[in-house]
Design a protein that fits this description.
alpha/beta, 9 strands, 184 residues
Amino acid sequence: MKIITIIPAREGSKRLKHKNIYPLKGKPLIEYTIEAALNSKYIDVENLYISTDFKKVVEIAINRNLNVHIRPKILAGDKIWTQDVIDEVIKNIPLEEDDLIIILQANSPQMTSEVIDKCIDKTLKHNLWEVHTVDNNLIHNGAIQVIRKKVCNHKGKVNHNGFVTTDWIDVHTKEDIEILEKII
C-alpha cells in the first residue's frame, strides 16, 4: 500500500494575506505542518507534495527537499474545492484504489505527527475509506484528512468514515495568530 501526502498551500487568502507563510513565533505556518508530516511514522519525504501557486511556498518546499506541484492558476481561486487540487496532484502518480492520500492543512500549526498517525491508524485498523479531524463540537475542521484513492472517483455519499477529535485553532485572522502566540 502506498501513502502519499499533499499539503495544499495557495497564495491567496482573504482575511489574512499570505496566511500559509504568515509567521507564528518566527516560523511560517506551513513549516509547522511540514514538521508534523515529516515526524509521522507513515509519511516519507519522497511521497510528500506541496501544491502551490506561491513562489515563497515553493522556496520553503525546495529548501526542505520536498516535491513541489505547481498549482495551475485555475485551481488557485477562492471557490476551488480541495478535491480538485488533490485530483490534479495525483493524476500522474500511480495509485491503487486502497492507497492512502493524506491531506494536511497548512494553516493548522498545532498539528502533530501523533494525531496524523492516529488518523492513519484508524483508517487502517477499521478499513475505513476516510478519516477526518473534527473539533470538540464534532464539526469538521479540515486539518487532517486521510482518504483512500477510490474516494477521489466516488460519486455521491461516502460511507465507512471515521473521525479524530482535535482542539486546534485553524489560522484565518491575525486574532488567531495572537491567540496561538500565547498557547504555543
